[in-house]
Amino acid sequence: MLIITIALVGFSYIYIAGVVTSRTATVFSVVDVLNDSVSIRNDGTSPITSFSSVSIDNSGAVYRVSVQDPSLVLHWKMDESSWTNDCSTETVIDSSGRGNNGRACGAIVAQGKFGNAGDFDGNDALLFPANQDTSLKNSVSTYTFWINSRDNISEFHSKRLLWRPMFNCRFF
Amino acid sequence: MVLDGIRFCYNPGGEYTGFTITTSPNTNGQWHHFAIIKDHNTNTITVYKNGLFQGSDSFTAFTPDNGSPRIATSQETGNRDDPFEGNIEEVKIYNRSYIIRYQKVHIP
Question: Has the ipTM of the complex gone over 0.90?
Answer without folding.
Answer: no
